[in-house]
Amino acid sequence: MRNSEPSRQDTDSSEALPYAMLIAAAMILASNHIIARYFNEMIPPLGLVFWRMVVGSLVILPFAISGAVNNRQTILENFKLFLIMACLFVPLGNGLIYVGYNFTTALNGGVVSTTQPALTVLISCLLFRDFINWKQATGIIIAALGVFVIISRGSPQYIMEFQPNPGDILILVATVFIALHNVLLRSIPKQISIITFMFVIQIVGALITLPFYMIETYFYKPVPTDFMSIGVLLWVGIAITSIAVGLMNSAVRIIGANKASIGNYMRSLFTAFLAIVFLGEEVQVFHVLSLVFVLGGVYLMTKSSSEI
Description:
Blueprint: H1 8-38, H2 45-70, H3 72-77, H4 79-100, H5 106-113, H6 116-128, H7 134-151, H8 156-160, H9 166-183, H10 194-219, H11 227-259, H12 262-278, H13 285-303
Helix pairs in contact: 1-11, 1-12, 2-4, 2-10, 2-11, 4-9, 4-10, 5-9, 5-12, 5-13, 6-7, 6-9, 7-13
């Protein structure tokens, strides 16, 4: 008689799937930091985030429209939540990251954004009263020291003289908003699929960003329409917004935000590698020290953490 229970191989494959998704997402998301830094003088930040969401929503439209229509009542009932999450993810999260890269390097930004898991646990505690054990608390403190090192460039004098890098500060603030967005993923009704959720967030986020994008176009500069700029917009819209974010959100829903934080480790390493190879950025001692603090703190924090 054939055993109807799943085999060990099938179980291992299903357990490995979300981690494979995280690795793929980390590789693609690392390119977001490189693009934001390299093209910051060519493509204005709000224009980049606006067209990223527009392209992303058009790509997933055929796959998401039926879910959006069928669940329209649920979406309307939870529209305030979707509105808040769209603000957090689009203008306040990715928008500020793109603005920040006008002032800092991809290496700095990659390290600062690695604090997202620590911020996620801290915000979960504040909003949902999730328990923080001593390892998590210690990890958060260590990760915070890593952020202090990167913002001060290894010299506390910069902080004492109120000269922190504004780009690092903006990316840190943006990371807080994205961490809050990830924490709120647990509040999305189960009947709303990941792709439907992404579609709604991208459309709402683009509409929220539109007036600021128009102001940027008029007073600063418009988004260029050359082949290079269009290629960048297609990449951030298709690969980053549709594929990478979809993979990451799916993994978070399967294994939880804490376990999924391993993706932040990999993204920071991929970002550092790409920044050195393609941007010619040099690794300084404070980069290494900061990365050791942040990764060590996040590892300690997530090693025995409860799911969130």
